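Worked Example 4.2. Consider the chain below.
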Amino acid sequence: MKQTKGILFDLDGTLWDSSRQVAESWQEVLEQQPDVTRKITVEDIQGFMGLPMDEIGRRCFEGQGLSKERVAEIMKACEEYENEYIRMHGGILFPHLEEVLKELSGQYFLAIVSNCQVGYIEAFLEHHKLGAYIDDFESFGNTGLQKGDNIKLVCDRNHLTQAVYLGDIQGDYDSACKAGIPFILAGYGFGEVNAQVPVIQSLKELRETAAAILD
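Applying the procedure from the previous section yields the following structure tokens:
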């Protein structure tokens, strides 16, 4: 039954690639900061994706001679403009995403759990008009909780008796383990996992792989 079985998704590297758009938006913000010399590349953003926003800020501006408070201020400006930019420009959806979400939503509870800021998931759903397929979502920015805790939170508040998490990096696997649910690796994503787990190379493989775990 859809009400008791869920598929939870990471966002970046799992459902889409917005690294170019995020890099562009951050660079626009940083160019307006007289005390920042840091240049942001797509490769930088891909390396940061999946990390909590406070950790991204620490890594991004380490060695820039900025106070913790100043880094937080810059990150807040980046996050706010990023949401606006994503809402306008979107990102690159991985192939077959809407088709797969539409099919799965008839059978499973679908949710997104990401380490992003408040408003980022909403911008993704709004620009690409995918909100009809997603039953719930949660973020680090909203709760201040680590991803494993947010996965458990979503499972608990929606009374899911079975769930699986689809992600693309080690941190996603670790978070699923912390939440006590199985993990599927998006092998087409940004990273890899040091564990023996089911792997899909296309979103079209998800239904069969998830069914083997949940049905």
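The two ends are 10 Å apart (CA to CA). Residues 86 and 120 are 8 Å apart (CA to CA). Compare this with Example 4.1 before moving on.
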